[in-house]
Amino acid sequence: MSKKFFNKDIIKCCEICNCSIYKLSDTELLCKKKGPVNTTDFCKAFKYNPLKRTPKSVNVDKNYTEKDFIL
């Protein structure tokens, strides 16, 4: 499971970096090292923080029947 969160194929961006401390707008945030930066940028101080990652949403089939809830 940790392989899923600490994958080396993670796209580097300031949005999931440990140095980002405050989101200024949808496209800008505040970095400890660089100050205001774009969310898609990254620098050599990039350090992945898995708690800042937003997981992909899952589409759930909404066609439920009473049979689906019986144990």
Q: What would a concise description of this structure say?
A:
With 71 residues, the chain is mainly beta.
> Which secondary-structure class do the elements indicate?
mainly beta
Supply the number of structural domains: 1
Could you give the count of β-strands? 3
**SS field, number of helical segments:** 1
Radius of gyration: 18 Å
- Provide the low-confidence segments as ranges: none
Widest sheet, order of strands = 1-2-3
The pLDDT mean sits at 83
Q: What's the helical proportion of residues?
A: under 10%
Strand content: 15-25%
What attributes does this structure have?
1 helix; mainly beta; 71 residues
Molecular structure report:
The chain is mainly beta and 71 residues long. The protein has one domain. Helix content is 6%, strand content 17%. A 3-stranded antiparallel sheet has the order 1-2-3, with no helix packed on it. The chain is elongated, with a radius of gyration of 18 Å. The mean pLDDT is 83.
Write the layout of secondary structure elements.
Blueprint: H1 2-5, E1 20-23, E2 28-31, E3 35-38
Antiparallel strand pairs: 1-2, 2-3
